[in-house]
Amino acid sequence: MTVIKLDGITKKFGSVTALDNLDLTVEKGEIYGFLGPNGSGKSTTINILLDFIQPTNGQATLFGQDVHTNSAAIRDRIGVLPDAYDTYDRLTGRQHLEFTIESKGASDDPMELLERVGIPEAADRTADGYSKGMTQRLVLSMALVGDPDLLILDEPSTGLDPNGAREMREIIMEQNQRGATIFFSSHIMEQVEAICDRVGILSNGTLIAEDSIHELRQQMDTKTTLTLVVSDVTPAVVDAVQNCTGVSNVTTGNDQISVSIADGSKAAVINTIESSAVELQDFSTSEASLEDLFTAYTTEQTEGSA
Ligand SMILES: Nc1ncnc2c1ncn2[C@@H]1O[C@H](COP(=O)(O)OP(=O)(O)OP(=O)(O)O)[C@@H](O)[C@H]1O
User: Fold this and answer.
1) pLDDT tens-digit profile of 97-139?
2) 41 CB less than 6 Å from ligand 1?
3) ABC transporter domain spans which residues (predicted)?
């Protein structure tokens, strides 16, 4: 079943085209990571899904219903962590939750939710005294009210320390395991990489790549980098490494040789060095990160459109 569907969405703000004929589909049970540089159109997309603004062209549906004509019915089924949310200064955390629970007609226990997001001790303090991270946790707890079928999270890690970001990931996973579909935007590659089934990369209002992290890596032809520390970087050993099957992009430093290797080529490179005249002192491997992919895709796009 399709939960989110954007069909040819264009959004113009005067002369600025924030979204340009965007198509996007998220299926039930998916965790979808929505990535893009500043100004690429992520918040605009989320605002359209939430019916805060309307597209210039195209149609957005949630659970098969038009987001504009069925907004009331849809609202009961989604939990939202907006980009910027103004809490009510004079209300306590508990009161914020009581209000949300009542307006959603849900039966959650406010304390249970505050415990879930790690701020039970702040339940009876007014929100004006909350730190940025505490506010983010409170707003997340409000998004969880009523066990929504879909969670829409705009930059959920904003204001969270590393511990908070890890807890956020755990909550997202838990919610997904209970059956919720998750759509979240992020700049934090590790977070997306750790938990997403699929990611979409938005640039200038257009989706320039969309797939699993694994497939995106394959498409980009990004390879593992093997770095070898040796007693001496001789022309002979560099030559021997270069001639190993699956090796490309050989670069050398004072006492090291770095190569890009295809799957399964590592042993051959190491064996080659070990049977040469130089001594292999250390080696390490690093895979291309999502950050590398992101940079490669968005740079390509910029260069392509320049
Ligand atoms: N209300 C508005 N009026 C005019 N231009 C707008 C408005 N909202 C967004 N834009 C423009 O639309 C484009 C997309 O903005 P949007 O906020 O959706 O990007 P974003 O990917 O969410 O960025 P960020 O990561 O910085 O939050 C930008 O060029 C922005 O300046």
Assistant:
1) 999 999 989 999 999 999 999 999 999 999 999 988 899 999 9
2) yes
3) 4-229
Predicted confidence (pLDDT) per residue in 29-38, tens digit: 999 999 888 8
Look up the pTM and report it.
Answer: 0.79
Quote the domain boundaries for residue 102: 2-218
Of 177, 171, 76, 181, the closest CA to residue 114 belongs to 171
Q: Tally the domains of the chain.
A: 2
Residue 265: inside a domain, yes or no?
A: yes
Residue 14 burial (10 A CB sphere; 0-12, 13-18, 19+): exposed
Return all residues near 232 (Cβ < 8 A) that are at least 6 apart: 255, 278
In a domain, 303, yes or no: no
Cα-to-centroid distance, 35 and ligand 1 (Å): 14
Query: Over 60: is that where the pLDDT of 304 sits?
Result: no
Residues 280 and 147 in one domain: no
Inside any domain, residue 299: no
The ipTM is 0.96
Residue 175 lies in a domain: yes
Q: How far is the CA of 38 from the centre of ligand 1 (A)?
A: 8
